[in-house]
Amino acid sequence: MEDKKLIFSGIQPTGTFTLGNYMGAVKNWGSLQEEYNCIYCVVDMHAITVRQDPAKLRQNTLNSYALLMACGVDPEKSILFIQSHVRTHAELNWILGCNTQFGELSRMTQFKDKSQRHPDDVNSGLFTYPVLMAADILAYNADLVPVGVDQKQHLELARNIAQRFNQRYGDFFTLPEPYIPKVGAKIMSLQEPTKKMSKSDENPNACILILDDKDTIIRKFKRAVTDSDTEVCYSEGKDGINNLMTIYSIVTGKDFAAIESEFAGKGYGDFKLAVGEAVADHLEPVRTEFARLSKDKAYLKKCYTEGAEKAMKYSQRIVSKVYHKVGFVDR
Ligand code: TYM
């Protein structure tokens, strides 16, 4: 690999990503490929921290892989693979777990949220999830991690674990920096705009899925919750409008001032329709490319097999050194 900074990121295999996943992370993954060495993976091992139907998980993992490609991740330019294909992640996970405190894991807000949502299955994988995430990143000594704001706390933990390891065993891991977009780092629910947009929301109108068809996208935006005001302007307390303006700005490239003047004197109805149409049009090529790619199973298999080989080769060098550093006998 050329001497550029290294980017690593991962995404859960939900099969179809939300507009939040897309704007906060995936959309940027493609554009970063020119400037950086990029490594991306579909994190199927993270997914089983909540109960999964095995056949669906397999299908969703393959769909997520194809969808990343449809969103612009090019397996010729980046290393794109499936997490469970590369065993170094699990190996490093164990070592990092032995350098992570129970107390710091207990403070993770995602663990608190998820254990409340699944009280019948608060398994230890859910608790140690952020350690595996640290292993994903540190197995490549990544410099930068492009994520949305909700992953910031996990990333800080990854840095703390790396720092602790370096203190105990001598400088080794790069401390990874979060790479969070200025606009779109937290796309909000269309129904409760003070809450993050999430696929697990019970109300299907709250969340745009990037494979939704045009009519569905427009319908969901038309129903988006706003306020009792009428003016399209970005300001404190107008969470619904602020969120729609953010989304519109990302897909059109217009700044907030340009959006405000475009809709001056027009009502929220016109604005919501324009946002819906702009998002649907923006995502059209993604849907088309996904439909094409997902039929080509042989090509996908070739891509994820080669991706895993490259990821394995890269991370094996690093994890072997970690094994040596902690005092394991060399093989
Ligand atoms: P996941 O699969 O929940 O989300 C994938 C990416 O989408 C971002 N995101 C959002 N961004 C803006 N607005 C939203 N509403 C929104 N919802 C989600 C997330 O911040 C994330 O960047 N633990 C990770 C996956 C992971 C990972 C890693 C990430 C595993 N190992 C190593 C980076 C590095 C997760 O569950 O993301």
Gist of the model:
This protein has helices at 19-32, 44-47, 54-70, 88-97, 102-106, 109-117, 124-138, 152-169, 214-222, 239-252, 256-262, 268-295, 297-326, and strands spanning 6-11, 37-42, 79-82, 144-146, 177-179. It has 13 helices and 5 strands. The two termini are 26 Å apart.
SSE topology sketch:
Elements: E1 6-11, H1 19-32, E2 37-42, H2 44-47, H3 54-70, E3 79-82, H4 88-97, H5 102-106, H6 109-117, H7 124-138, E4 144-146, H8 152-169, E5 177-179, H9 214-222, H10 239-252, H11 256-262, H12 268-295, H13 297-326
Keywords for this structure?
331 residues, mainly alpha, Rossmann fold, Tyrosyl-Transfer RNA Synthetase, 2 domains, 3-stranded parallel β-sheet, two-stranded parallel ribbon, 13 helices, 5 strands, globular, binds tryptophanyl-5'AMP
Question: What does this 3D model show about the protein?
Answer:
The chain has 331 residues and is mainly alpha-helical. It has 2 domains: 6-185 and 297-326, Rossmann fold, CATH 3.40.50; 204-291, Orthogonal Bundle (Tyrosyl-Transfer RNA Synthetase). The protein is 54% helix and 7% strand. The protein is built from 13 helices and 5 strands. It has helices spanning 19-32, 44-47, 54-70, 88-97, 102-106, 109-117, 124-138, 152-169, 214-222, 239-252, 256-262, 268-295, 297-326; strands at residues 6-11, 37-42, 79-82, 144-146, 177-179. The strands form 2 sheets. The protein has a 3-stranded parallel β-sheet with strand order 1-2-3. The chain has a two-stranded parallel ribbon with strand order 4-5. Helix 8 links the parallel strand 4 (144-146) and strand 5 (177-179). Helix 4 packs across helix 7, helix 9 (214-222) runs antiparallel to helix 12 and helix 10 (239-252) crosses helix 12. The two termini are 26 Å apart. Residues 8-12, 20-21, 23-25, 43, 46, 133, 136-137, 145, 147-148, 150-151, 154, 185-187, 196-197 line the site of tryptophanyl-5'AMP.
